[in-house]
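Hey,

Quick one before I head out. I ran the complex with zinc ion overnight. Inputs first:
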Amino acid sequence: MGIQISPSILSADFADLRTAAESVASADWLHVDVMDNHFVPNLTIGVPVVESLAKVASQPLDCHLMIEDPDRWAPAYVEAGAGSVTFHVEACRAPVRLARELRAQQARAGMALKPATAIEPYGDLLAELDMVLIMTVEPGFAGQRFLEFCLSKIARTRRLLDKTGADIWLQLDGGISADTIERCAEAGADVFVAGSAVFGADNPDAVVTHLRSLAEKAQPTSR
Ligand code: DX5
Ligand code: ZN
């Protein structure tokens, strides 16, 4: 898979998500930030909104669950129409069991790590996943500044993913923009979430196209 862009609707108009989806027609996914006010200090979208959005969006939904007890709740997001569901490993009791359950439902299974969480303890279970999400800000809010110290974890994660021999995507979320995406692609990431950079622009779809082309040019040729 090449470079993919997943605009985060957290920075869109929640009163008009259909228009938000249409405004990023060339996006590969729509990133949906689910927050429960426990795992993160913010409250956003739940299952009913995902269900409605799935019916009107042409892009598949990439649900990022920033919630406690994803073991209990994640499968409901697949039932609501998500194509990919990402749970936080810090909140998950049984990541292998949950990933298998999501895949059995025919969805892609993603596992997310906060900035301070190391990838190394999870090296052996990576083949159970379709995607690893490395947070490049503390989860909870759009518009934060990219944390540069995450770059070495991105490179280390890419090496571990390559070792599996499987096509496991490496997604980044937080502070991704035209200023940061190139060094992230160079380090081995291939799926980029962008909220404020896309929906804060006059022409969101032009930003999607621009970000993708910057990342494609920066991506190591060996991949
Ligand atoms: C933050 C969310 C992100 C957020 C990114 O916790 O997970 O998806 O929308 O927003 P930007 O791109 O503005 O950092
Ligand atoms: Zn997110």
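Helices lie at 17-22, 47-56, 70-79, 95-104, 150-164, 181-186, 196-199, 204-218.

Talk tomorrow,
K.
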